[in-house]
Amino acid sequence: MTDDPVDRVLSRPDALDEMAEEIERLDRRLSRRVNADPDGVERGLAQLVLTLVELLRQLMERQAVRRVEGGTLSDEEIERLGTTFLRLEQRMDELKELFDLTDDDLNLNLGPLGDLL
Amino acid sequence: MLHVYAVTDPEPRPPAVAGVDGAPVATLAQGGLAVAYSRHATAPSPPSPETALVHARVCDDLLAQGLAVLPVRYGTRYADEAALREGVAERRQALGARLDAVRGHVELGLRVLWTPHPDDVEPDGVAVEDGGPGRAYLLRRVAQEQQRQRRREAAEAAAAQVHDPLAAAAREARSEVLATPRLLLSASYLVPRHGVDAFRALVEDMAAAHPDLDVLCTGPWPAYSFGDEPREPRSPV
Q1: CATH number for domain B106-221, candidates 3.30.1370, 3.30.70, 2.90.10, 1.25.40
Q2: B interface with A, Cβ–Cβ below 8 Å
Q3: Per the CB < 8 Å rule, is A65 touching B142?
Q4: Which residue of A has its CA nearest to B47?
Q5: Which of B109, B125, B159, B164 lies 20 to 30 Å from A80 when distance is taken between CA atoms?
Q6: B66 Cβ partners below 8 Å, 6+ apart?
Q7: Using a CB-CB distance cutoff of 8 angstroms, which residues of chain B are in contact with residue A82?
Q8: What is the average per-residue pLDDT within B91-109?
Q9: Smallest Cβ distance to A11: which of B132, B183, B203?
Q10: pLDDT for residue B125 is more than 70
């Protein structure tokens, strides 16, 4: 065995660059953490709080989706629920913009448990 | 402060390569196991591609000595030899069992890219135009959820076609489906040291049978992914 990483490639696709891009993307996701450095403490805190809010919002929304799929809701109830979630999403978008956060910032990798969202 | 590289069979020769930050690598025997580590006056460098390679070279050296090697996660530190001994003693049984599992074997890595079908935004048999914006929003979410579910199922099936025959040819395997939307399968296989060529032939046959997939196979590596017992399959969320 030598030091050259190329010697460890047993079988490669034609599109090796695409593969490398994808692995880098994965690497960035794995290394993402809540930003807690003193300079960005406000944004770090906003990130932490909004991460939790976003988790709850998505859980509730998924539950609503299941109820719609279950067919137990009237048209009126669907409209009311949908309007609530629509407004929640708009509000979240405003807050993300305010703190300069992206969807990726609000998703934490929980190691073996996978992604939070 | 001690930086730990790997747990191995006793008695390894001290690796011929330097450790992190140029520190010499020493070994210590404890309860029928050995540990490779280096001593640092200040905190060793944080993980980076360069330091990870240094760490890996030490593990490669031990593997090349014909020992069973369990690489330790980069950044694992102990205050001194006494703390390191204690740490190993606490996990002695589990570490011994994993060393037995990987002895005589190497790890091969597999990454498979696929091109998912383009998003179909319209929900199945629901007219989104009817009703107000709230209804439209929620029905769109229903459609997205169904599409996510379909994609997940399609990915699981496609990944199993690749993974199952390879896992059957390996002593142990670990895998993750859709680590990213394009990364269909990320898997590691524990294969006999002398079985690398045979396994590679299997991978190449599989790649030829699935021209729509991009397949990268790497190795042989020390058993980076096999330090823990196999996990029970995750139940669907």
Answers
A1: 3.30.70
A2: 53, 57, 60, 64, 108, 111, 113, 131-139, 141-142, 145-146, 179-180, 182-183, 186, 196, 200, 203-204, 207, 214-221, 231
A3: yes
A4: A31
A5: B125
A6: none
A7: 132-139
A8: 95
A9: B203
A10: no
Measured in residues, chain A has a length of 117
- The structure tokens listed for B71 are 């690489």
Tens-place pLDDT, residues A52-85:
888 888 889 989 999 999 988 898 999 999 999 9
Looking at residue B116, its amino acid is: P
Please report the ipTM that was assigned to this predicted complex. Answer: 0.73
CA distances from residue B87 to B7, B20, B90, B95, B153 in whole angstroms, order as listed: 11, 21, 5, 11, 42
Q: Which amino acid is at A7?
A: D
Residue A53's Cβ-count burial label (10 Å; 0-12, 13-18, 19+) is middle
